[in-house]
């Protein structure tokens, strides 16, 4: 059959809020034109993030009931440890309440002021945790990643020449570890090839620099490797995941992504002395090592979820939903980052709104138009999120790209929801000349996109 169906049926429903355009106008104005300040109850299709927003399966809900809430040595911990070890092969595994807690423990125990951590693309919490201890987070995306529209497949790869140069300049002693993020979230959810991970590892090995995988979307990355990289077509996703992890010395993970859970994460490594440091800080800030920051029932749900994420039918369907939306937008000439990544579609808002300058925040204009037209919530990744506020009256420093992200929660929306979204985008695209400019009227000194207030402005 040509049609790739949702490989599940629905046993429990959750009503979607349906609002009228005039209601949305009032609601958005009341939220100071910032969709982060809307109540979720007023959003019909919520594509703000794929993090923690997925639907659990009946097997996960059943597993919750098996949660052993013993403080130490619980059965649920054993199951969690066994599952994570089966997938990753790592010797030491520490449960954390989410990904950033794993990053915090890693950064606080391994880094000193002035150290450098290279990555194909640091996620914002990873960067923040590294910078918080005074170290430097360096992004080394592949050169292909800079061209938003080239159809190259493994655009999430790390720039190997850049890595060699960074080691040359900094000296291996100043790089306590290197990271590789699969898929590369900051670079649009673009996958990383097995060959790239292997070559990164080979280079690091010469200098004795450990490699940590930011594994949030390890299963989506494994699917891309199976589909697109030579020699992997006949391998299972579990085998591919194991091979990826076998090239690394440890990993950080947010179970809110490919753990198919609403909360959770882990930190893992092979090195015994690292593990001692991790354990000591874990006990101080997260909890006893057999539950970390989680309840026994969470450990159960994550154990099931991690394995479900590696089911081929699930990944085929997930990939098909992203492709379905991408091909519909491409057919209409709507400018998106290509090829589509694993968990989101990124619209090029600068190309969508050529009548707006970066200082008009075209991403905010487009996000707000999508909400007003159809109650769809997307997120700006442009000059508001990444731009720097003006230093004393000067022009704001814009970012190279003005993007709007439509992130896909896992197993939540069906094809008709995507058809609705396409219809909304159709109208907004047709009427794009009327997308408005916005100015910031209030902002915080950092991470301003979460709480900023905007007003409409004349172009
Ligand atoms: C979400 C994410 C994190 C952080 O995980 P949280 O669970 O949100 O703390 C780290 N790295 C990447 C690539 C992510 O997508």
From TrEMBL:
Cofactor annotation: pyridoxal 5'-phosphate
One Pfam family of this chain: Beta_elim_lyase
Entry keyword annotation includes Transmembrane helix: no
Molecular function per GO: carbon-carbon lyase activity
Domain Aromatic amino acid beta-eliminating lyase/threonine aldolase positions: 46-421
One example of a Gene Ontology biological process annotation: aromatic amino acid metabolic process
Span of the signal peptide: none
Modification sites for N6-(pyridoxal phosphate)lysine: 257
Entries under InterPro entries matching the protein: ArAA_b-elim_lyase/Thr_aldolase, Beta-eliminating_lyase, PyrdxlP-dep_Trfase, PyrdxlP-dep_Trfase_major, PyrdxlP-dep_Trfase_small
Listed PANTHER family: BETA-ELIMINATING LYASE-LIKE PROTEIN-RELATED, TRYPTOPHANASE
Family statement drawn from the similarity comment of this UniProt entry: Belongs to the beta-eliminating lyase family.
Subunit record text: Homotetramer.
Name this polypeptide is given: Tryptophanase
Lineage of origin: Bacteria, Pseudomonadati, Pseudomonadota, Alphaproteobacteria, Hyphomicrobiales
């Amino acid at each position: 059959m040509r049609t790739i169906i949702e490989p599940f049926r629905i046993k429990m429903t959750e009503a979607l809020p349906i609002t009228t355009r005039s209601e949305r106008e009032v609601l958005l104005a009341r939220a100071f034109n910032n969709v982060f300040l809307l109540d979720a109850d007023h959003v019909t299709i919520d594509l703000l993030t794929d993090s923690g927003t997925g639907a659990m399966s009946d097997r996960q809900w059943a597993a919750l009931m098996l949660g052993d809430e013993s403080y130490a040595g619980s059965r649920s911990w054993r199951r969690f440890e066994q599952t994570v070890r089966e997938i990753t092969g790592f010797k030491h595994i520490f449960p954390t309440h989410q990904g950033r807690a794993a990053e915090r423990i890693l950064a606080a125990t391994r880094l000193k002021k002035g150290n450098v951590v290279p990555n194909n693309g640091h996620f914002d919490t990873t960067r923040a945790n590294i910078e918080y201890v005074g170290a430097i987070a360096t992004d080394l995306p592949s050169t292909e990643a800079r061209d938003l529209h080239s159809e190259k497949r493994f655009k999430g790869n790390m720039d190997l020449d850049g890595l060699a140069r960074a080691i040359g300049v900094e000296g291996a002693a100043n790089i306590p570890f290197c990271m590789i993020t699969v898929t590369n979230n900051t670079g649009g959810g673009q996958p990383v090839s097995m060959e790239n991970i292997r070559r990164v590892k080979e280079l690091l090995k010469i200098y004795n620099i450990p490699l940590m995988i930011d594994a949030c979307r390890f299963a989506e990355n494994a699917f891309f490797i199976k589909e697109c990289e030579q020699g992997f077509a006949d391998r299972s996703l579990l085998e591919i995941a194991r091979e990826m992890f076998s090239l690394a010395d440890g990993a950080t993970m947010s179970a809110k992504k490919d753990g198919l859970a609403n909360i959770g994460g882990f930190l893992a490594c092979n090195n015994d002395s690292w593990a001692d440091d991790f354990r000591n800080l874990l006990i101080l800030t997260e909890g006893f090592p057999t539950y970390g920051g989680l309840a026994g029932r969470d450990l159960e749900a994550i154990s099931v979820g991690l394995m479900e994420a590696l089911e081929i039918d699930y990944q085929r369907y997930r990939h098909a939903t992203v492709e379905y939306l991408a091909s519909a937008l491409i057919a209409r000439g709507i400018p998106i980052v290509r090829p589509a990544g694993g968990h989101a579609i990124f619209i090029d808002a600068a190309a969508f709104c050529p009548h707006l300058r970066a200082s008009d925040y075209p991403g905010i204009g487009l996000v707000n138009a999508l909400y007003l037209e159809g109650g769809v919530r997307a997120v700006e990744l442009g000059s508001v999120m990444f731009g720097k506020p003006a230093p004393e009256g000067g022009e704001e420093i814009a970012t190279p790209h003005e993007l709007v992200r439509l992130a896909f929660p896992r197993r939540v929306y069906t094809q008709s929801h995507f058809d609705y979204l396409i219809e909304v985008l159709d109208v907004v695209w047709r009427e794009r000349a009327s997308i408005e400019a916005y100015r910031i009227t209030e902002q915080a000194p950092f991470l301003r996109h979460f709480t900023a207030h905007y007003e409409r402005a004349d172009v």
